[in-house]
Design a protein that fits this description.
Length: 230
């Protein structure tokens, strides 16, 4: 029994380990030294570090509150100079446009106000009236009544001797041309302009004057060559 058991045991070969250097891994000698890494601190938990970071951010105008660079750093210098150079030009152009609009508005308002004043004083059509003693069957108690009218650019002069419409006379005047001339007022005055002692009729249309001479019974247009003192 003992002989059988001895046969069952495995046979190990004997090797000379000392002769096989390839079975071991060797490291080359190094002069490097190991240093311990410094312990990292979380700045969020350190109030001293937080206060110093906040102070640096406040003192630096080019850094935002979140620590990112300000947009002023990212904007090109050429673009900033371009905007600064064109800003006065745009301001001047806008000012000129505003002044032009104000001038147009002021002109329109002035024209409207002038027409409104004429509407209140002369009405439509433009009409002017006066009474005067001219020696045509009239008297101080019954003066002659005159009506001066701009009727669709046609100047009409109506005389009522002694305020009697049965003897009314109509003297045609000039025709006005141009835009808005139908709203031009017509006024008149009674005055002796030729020195014969009879009151004559002077009509005013803007900067023009028309003279009608009194011949004792009615009025006639001024003839060429007649000298009058207006």
């Amino acid at each position: 029994m003992e002989v059988a058991k001895a046969k069952k045991q495995p046979q190990f070969a004997e090797y000379d380990v000392g002769d096989n250097d390839d079975l071991y891994t060797t490291r080359s000698h190094s002069s490097a030294r190991r240093y311990r890494q410094p312990i990292e601190h979380d700045t969020r938990d350190d109030p001293l570090l937080q206060s110093s970071v906040i102070q640096r951010r406040r003192s630096n105008p080019l850094v935002n509150a979140n620590g990112s660079p300000s947009r002023a750093l990212t904007a090109p210098v050429a673009e900033v100079e371009h905007k600064q150079r064109h800003f006065p030009l745009m301001a001047i152009l806008i000012g000129m446009v505003v002044m032009a609009l104000l001038a147009v508005a002021l002109s329109s308002f002035t024209s409207w106000w002038h027409i409104h004043q004429d509407d209140m004083q002369y009405g439509r059509p433009r009409t002017f009236q006066l009474d005067a003693v001219v020696g045509h069957n009239d008297s101080a108690t019954n003066p002659t009544h005159f009506i001066f009218m701009n009727l669709n650019r046609h100047i009409e002069i109506i005389e009522l001797p002694g305020s009697d419409s049965a003897h009314a006379r109509i003297y045609p005047g000039p025709i006005l041309f141009g835009d808005g001339q139908d709203l031009t007022p017509v006024t008149a005055e009674i005055r002796d302009v030729n020195g014969d002692g009879k009151p004559d009729l002077i009509i005013h249309i803007q900067d023009q004057q028309l003279v009608f001479i009194n011949d004792g019974t009615q009025f006639r247009p001024l003839r060429s060559g007649e000298h009058v003192n207006i």
